[in-house]
Design brief:
With 144 residues, the chain is an alpha+beta fold. It has helices spanning 8-13, 15-25, 34-45, 92-108, 121-129, and strands at 3-5, 50-56, 59-71, 76-86, 113-116. The chain has a five-stranded mixed beta sheet with strand order 1-2-3-4-5. The N and C termini lie far apart (42 Å).
């Protein structure tokens, strides 16, 4: 199978699946309460975020949500992987194919990097083999 972008209609029709994927794998800095989930759906429907699926939209093996973020001081554009959730165990080659697809998309929209917050040690090791820089740690200090 191949990673494909979902249309607005597919996002709306399959929000229950996307929502579950986001709840299971959103950024560690993201609040996934109901009011915030409405914001995420709105971002997807308005084109501020993109939902990708591997498999059929109604029964995906993987859901990935991305957005373009710009580091304000330097103007560096990044494709941020907001969430990536696999509903099935996948072979490492499938993950690498998805990374390549997202990398090609990122280049096409003039991004400088693809970035993700990763805590799964197996995935960190795989991405490192693919050339990802994995020496950094994200420290989060919640204020609530």
């Amino acid at each position: 199978m191949a990673l494909t972008k979902m249309s607005d209609e597919e996002v709306g029709e399959n929000w229950h699946i996307i929502r579950r994927a986001i709840k299971n794998s959103a950024l560690p800095t993201a609040d996934t309460g109901e009011d915030k989930m409405k914001n995420i759906l709105d971002a997807l429907l308005r084109g501020f975020a993109v939902c990708w699926v591997d498999g059929k939209a109604s029964a995906p093996t993987t859901v990935i949500v991305t957005s373009i973020s710009e580091e304000e001081i330097s103007g560096t554009k990044n494709l941020l992987i907001y969430c990536a959730h696999a509903f099935l165990r996948l072979d490492s080659s499938v993950y690498l194919d998805m990374v390549r697809t997202l990398g090609s998309y990122a280049k096409g929209v003039q991004c400088d990097n693809v970035i993700a917050y990763v805590h799964n040690k197996k995935l960190v090791k795989l991405l490192k083999q693919y050339g990802a820089e994995t020496n950094y740690t994200l420290a989060i200090m919640p204020l609530r």
